[in-house]
Amino acid sequence: MGFFDKLKEGLKKSREAFFNKIGQILKTRRFDRETRDEIEELLILADVGVEATEYILERLEEMKPEDAFGALKEILIEILSKDNKLNIPDEKPFVISMVGVNGSGKTTTCGKLAYMFRREGKQVVLGACDTFRAAAIDQLKIWAERSGATFIAHMEGADAGAVAYDAVNHAISKGKDVVILDTAGRLHNKKHLMDELQKVHRVVQKLVPAAPHEVLLVMDAVTGQNGLQQAKIFKEVVSVTGIVLTKLDGTAKGGIAIAIAKELGIPIKFIGVGEGIEDLKPFDAKDFVEALLAGDEISESTPANV
Ligand SMILES: Nc1nc2c(ncn2[C@@H]2O[C@H](COP(=O)(O)OP(=O)(O)OP(=O)(O)O)[C@@H](O)[C@H]2O)c(=O)[nH]1
Ligand SMILES: [Mg+2]
Fold first, then answer.
1. Which residues contact 83 (CB under 8 A, 6 or more apart)?
2. How far apart are CA 7 and CA 17, in angstroms?
3. Is 270's pLDDT higher than 90?
4. Angle separating helix axes 256-263 and 50-61, nearest 10 degrees
5. Ligand 1 center to residue 102 CA distance, Å?
6. Strand-pair category, 178-182 with 214-220
């Protein structure tokens, strides 16, 4: 399946539950009070959030009714378009810290990212900084094997900062390109978790002052507005440079991407559209919106003789 079809497949639930309806309404009806209210309800249900919904409606009101559908695409692309290039340093290693609440998809995303870099011919180190559970270390090890990355870990309960130090130190001494640090999502309490994250970053800076070059906050799209609140807490404590929005394939609430862009002001850099190693895609605002509002006439599945 091609890139766009995979994205379209991943956004199927969101498209079928909400965005196709919105598209249909805008294509076939006048943008009057009643239409406005219906679209407002659909946007809120799709988890677009109050702020972005109001903005979209205000912008739609300014348009000629016959332009409304095309305008919606433009407005969504505008909201979602942020500089989402990776901050890759001139000198290796490129250090990425993966943060987020438990279960959001950090470890899986570490594996997918490692695989993506390996396919670009880069040498990757995965650091198991989630030392809270032995299972977390084993899980990352499996991803390291699958993706062909070097695995650096200590024992369960070890100091997360020490693991980060070893992973970056290994990369420096062996001339490796990328270090990806998997961190814990749950500790005894929120303060402990945030303290640990800050410590991991401080330790890494002893070796590479500009690191971590990327702090990617992994968010589970299924958790919708709740996830957005959690993201705001992380943003206060660590300097998040990008969002990875996972599990878009499992939810109809793909509109959360729009709320994230509008309310967090942090670029979405990757999206997860499945559990497989290739199911991580760099985020592209235009492709995302096209997939969200695409018609459902998938040509591939149509038999040739019809
Ligand atoms: N459908 C789907 N499932 C995903 C995606 N990303 C991750 N998952 C699944 O989500 C579950 C949790 O993923 P993990 O990577 O273990 O999450 P985590 O943030 O590391 O969790 P903790 O280590 O407990 O903090 C796993 O079952 C993954 O397979 C995705 O894009 N789509
Ligand atoms: Mg994990």
1. 267
2. 16
3. yes
4. 90
5. 9
6. unpaired
